[in-house]
Amino acid sequence: MPDIRRIEAGGQQIAVRKDLRVPMRDGVALAADAYAGVEDRPRPALVALSPYGKELQALALTMPPQRRPSPMWDGCIEAGDIARVVAEDYVHVIGDLRGSGASEGTHVGNYNAGGVPLGQDAYDFIEWVAAQPWCDGNVGMIGISYYGSMQVLAAAERPPSLKAIFVSGGHFDFYETTYHGGVMWFMPRAAREGRGGDSGWAFTDRITSRMLETYSADEVAKRVAERLADPDVAAWPNLVHVLHYPKHHEAWFDIVLNDLDGEWYEERNPINLARSIDIPVHLQIDQGRGWTVDGHIELFETLTGPKKLVIGSYPPMQSRPWVEEHDEMFRWYEYWLKGVDNGVMDEPPVSVFVEGSREVVTASQWPPKGVEHRPLYLRPRGKLAARAELMGPEHAAPDGFYQAPLTVTDEVQLVSWSTPPVEEPTELIGTGAAHLFVEIDQPDTNFILRLWDTAPDGRRQLLTTGYLKASHRELDEERSTEGNPYHPHTRAVPVEPGVIEEYVLRLYPFAATVLPGHRLVAELSNDEPLADEHNSLLPPDAFHLPVGRPVTHKIYRDAEHPSRLVLPFTTPSAAAG
Predict the structure, then answer these.
(1) List of residues 6+ apart from 507 with CB closer than 8 A
(2) pLDDT tens, 523-553?
(3) Per-residue model confidence (pLDDT) at position 417
(4) What is the model's pTM?
(5) Helix or strand or coil: residue 384?
(6) E strands of 441-482, at which residues?
(7) Domains of the chain with CATH codes
(8) What is the C-alpha to C-alpha distance for residues 168 and 316, in angstroms, rounded to an integer?
(9) CB-based burial of residue 457 (10 Å sphere; 0-12 exposed, 13-18 middle, 19+ buried)?
């Protein structure tokens, strides 16, 4: 029998069923804790599943919510406000995934690759919960980030008792979770290993490498040597360590070894699995983390059942323990789990917060307004203008910057271009692109473009970003449209030094109104600044692998090389003359 105890939290008595054993179809048992009101009656249940450890999630009962840049912020406390869930008359069931925490079994690879499918375990877990005397048979799910991704994997398996899900801040296309524009992102390392504001997965020796299980020792050694031949990888101590000692960092080793998109990432891609989901899905994501905004939009467009998409305001990171969006979530579950007609489904399916104007725009689709993609050209003297440069390269000499590796400098070089102050409110909603004609003197580099809204007093807010590894510049012309390029990332093609190439960066979805007196400023670099207004709001490991070789960049922006931004204007006038 499970240990049932009473605790007091949030001004109420809570009955806690500790260390429940939940059987999977192959005989493995998962561990779970269930929190509910003390009255002995069945209630709807909200299930939270991750490898972060149910004991860590219990800190939601005792720790006030922390926002970045608080040093107490821990990115893995994501299962929701336990006391609030109980107060709303649900059972909050927090489980440890296979091979983590107090659960049995071995976890192979990442959530979308290898071993027993996590969605299959979620199916068994949900149906077990629904059959318990303390549950009324109606189950939803709760939690952000990894917990949000697990909701999609679970719903795709169609457990009969799962009636709806509420996904906030999930990660879906797994290649896009680990490589942005082909540039490695370190956040998955933090989530798995426990670094820089993350406690990490609650695994000990029960996670194994998919690569080590799949390939021979000789093939693994060959792949490791290929990755170490990349100067970016070879210059980063942690990656050298991971590649030489993979059994200490199995999941991260698999990611490092797979730097191209393909079967390993697509096998259980939640975006593809979402085509099987037929229950209601509510998606919520805040602006400022473009890659997750992108994934939520892609998932929304894939789903065919009842659905909602809410894009919230900046800043990008919710608090930990996670307490935001609960009002919205409980309205959703009141309708779908308790049968209360509260009008939530009478509202438009898409809601977008517009930065700057601070208006909320609603519609039936993304983007919520008609968009005209128009160019802003890079011009001499750091200007952005609606008209292209008329002079050729012999007169309009290129801009440029030299970046030394961060092994020998702490300075990240930036080059920027700015519009004049706008004269009337200028609204932009959607995706964008940056077409850059660049000559480099090495076979590869990164391009990182960040678009800022800069106020007259100098304060600024990040609107969107774009990333592209130069060797990943190939476009899928059939899938690319104006202002929305598509890179397959299925092969790397080294750059011929000294040749001018056109690089097209995809700018992640955003929604903002540039107010009178404000300017749009585009910054280009090949590494990220070590600290600025935006980075201070992200976890310490939320940055990208720096370039490991010295690179000189010449950015051409003349009549023959029309470097430009292509932005999604909803207003009839351009931002600059």
Answers:
(1) 290, 431, 432, 433, 434, 449, 451, 464, 465, 466, 565, 567
(2) 999 999 877 888 888 877 788 999 999 999 9
(3) 98
(4) 0.94
(5) strand
(6) 446-454, 460-469
(7) 3-347 (3.40.50.1820), 372-569 (2.60.120.260)
(8) 12
(9) exposed
